[in-house]
Task: inverse folding
């Protein structure tokens, strides 16, 4: 976030510098307000560029085996251009490389899920999926495994059968 702020400030300075050079090249005939307007437009442009490239930059840095399962695009009236071109603000990734299953329960898969947000820290959660029953359970709150691999005290939640996270976990 700090580097994006520095880049935005430098973009404003660079655009103001270009406007100043144009003013000198035209014999100082351009209006005086051109430099601050150019600086502001440069900073706004840099901010918009950072918002639209955040998702691609983040996905490029994901380790091998972590795949994007779902994205959330955002539109805002405070940013009118997003009404035409929404940008990805959040996404969910699944660590398919470390997804596990139990031979006693072949329809269940255990996978780590990562939640990414534009201005949020990355959150990770171990989730158990029942591929045949289309349901999932978060394994943080007191769930435990029995000797045969069954899970006790799990809070199972129903999922639509076409859920993209469920599909990705169950296909691996």
Result:
């Amino acid at each position: 976030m700090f580097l994006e702020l520095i880049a935005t400030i430098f973009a404003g300075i660079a655009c103001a510098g270009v406007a100043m050079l144009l003013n000198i090249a035209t014999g100082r005939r351009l209006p005086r307000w051109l430099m601050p307007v150019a600086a502001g437009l440069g900073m706004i442009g840099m901010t918009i560029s950072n918002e639209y490239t955040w998702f691609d930059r983040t996905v490029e840095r994901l380790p091998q085996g972590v795949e994007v399962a779902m994205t959330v695009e955002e539109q805002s009236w405070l940013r009118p251009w997003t009404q035409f071109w929404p940008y990805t603000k959040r996404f969910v990734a699944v660590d398919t490389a470390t997804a596990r299953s139990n031979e006693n329960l072949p329809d269940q898969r255990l996978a780590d899920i990562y939640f990414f947000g534009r201005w949020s820290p990355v959150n990770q959660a171990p989730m158990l999926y029942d591929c045949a029953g289309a349901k999932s359970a978060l394994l943080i709150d007191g769930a435990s495994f029995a000797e045969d691999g069954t899970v006790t005290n799990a809070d199972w939640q129903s999922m639509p059968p076409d859920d993209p996270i469920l599909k990705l976990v169950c296909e691996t």
